[in-house]
Input
Amino acid sequence: MNAVDGGDNTTVQHVVDRLLPVASRVRLKDGVSLDHESDIYFPLDGVVTLTLSRDDSRFQIGFARRGDAIGLQTLFVPDFPLVVATVLRGGTFVRVAPDVLHRLMTEEPVFRDRLSTYAMHAMGRYLSEAAGALALSLEQRVARWITLCRRALDDDILPVTHEGIAEALGVRRSGVTVALHVLEGQRLIRSRRGRIDVLDREGLRSFATSGRRKPAKNPAGHDVGPRSRAGCRC
Output
């Protein structure tokens, strides 16, 4: 499962350990697009944004970091929808050719089982995330993207632009700008040139799910919402 989504990354780590003698290590910079139709990538300290692309539609499906694999779906389901992978934070990656993986899967059943288990879970998660996006408003999709991005980078300061988010979500930049204004109005984020500061992690997660910010708690532990404030005027 994807490390960003809280899944168990030991499966991929075992795979990486086995691949190190026959794979290469590469340094990739921010903004590089991975050609995972030619090679499979395993991030060591880099972070990659993943977008599912089909026909004219694009859906953000998550992020990949240490403990994840990029491009495995092409080994098991060649006609799986295209997954566009772009480096969000540069770092070191293990790169291996598909024919090497095919050979190891043929020679080592345990290796094959580990790889196929991860790939099946990943493909299911990709499709589930894409389907789930259809039920969300653009503001919610942007909030979810920021939430997942923050978890992937493990930082409240995100080096992202309106254009970058729009590209990942397959929407217009102007729509992302409006969505960010909404999130700023809810005091969930602060949008600056070339970066976004996350101000309220829990509120952002709540907004991504329900479309509204989770009410804050007063010192007594009660919700501070419209009804509470109205009650104070009585």
